Amino acid sequence: NAGVTQTPKFQVLKTGQSMTLQCAQDMNHNSMYWYRQDPGMGLRLIYYSASEGTTDKGEVPNGYNVSRLNKREFSLRLESAAPSQTSVYFCASRGQGTEAFFGQGTRLTVV
Amino acid sequence: AQKITQTQPGMFVQEKEAVTLDCTYDTSDPSYGLFWYKQPSSGEMIFLIYQGSYDQQNATEGRYSLNFQKARKSANLVISASQLGDSAMYFCAMRDSSGYALNFGKGTSLLVTP
Lengths: 111, 114
Prior knowledge:
Strand content of chain B: over 45%
Number of helices of chain B: 0
Distance between the termini of chain A: 35 Å
Oligomer: heterodimer
Helix content of chain A: under 10%
Order of helices and strands of chain A: EEEEEEEEEEE
Largest sheet of chain B: 6 strands, mixed
Order of helices and strands of chain B: EEEEEEEEEEEE
Mean pLDDT of chain B: 93
Number of strands of chain B: 12
Number of helices of chain A: 0
Structural class of chain A: mainly beta
Shape of chain A: globular
Mean pLDDT of chain A: 95
Strand content of chain A: over 45%
């Protein structure tokens, strides 16, 4: 019962470094999402993918890129990390007419 | 653009009492869906309950019920018979009419006291 798997769980980056957060789901869901969670701000949508081959910007897309590699995988890339991108990142997936299922989160610190 | 508002940053309730967590939304779409999630201190996101904009009845799931007032654009979560394990952050979210984008409110922190 893997559900939504995110890697890594923790990461520390230096300002200017790049990294890719990986996300995979095994529920055959069409839609996938990337959120960031900051204290007092709730979950803010970065990007989403309604289906394989499509991606759309959410509320806070600046500084991020995404790739929907296939139906299972949706990655989030930080090309040049900034301290403002220190956050907890959640990946989620959703099927037609269902709720969203979330990964365990990635705690990213940019120093 | 859609907006989800949770006006209560923090709430207290005594064990075994009922509590209502507020959520208001703003959308011009006739078709939308509303979700509530729980996030305990361990960090995982747990789905609680869903209400579709065309659903005639208020959704219920065990001790959770959704007080859906469409004209007021509110979708308040009611937790009956609170338990200590209900202490957590609670988030309201809305799916837009495209069926894809899912936007969250800022959350309400609930503390259940003995």
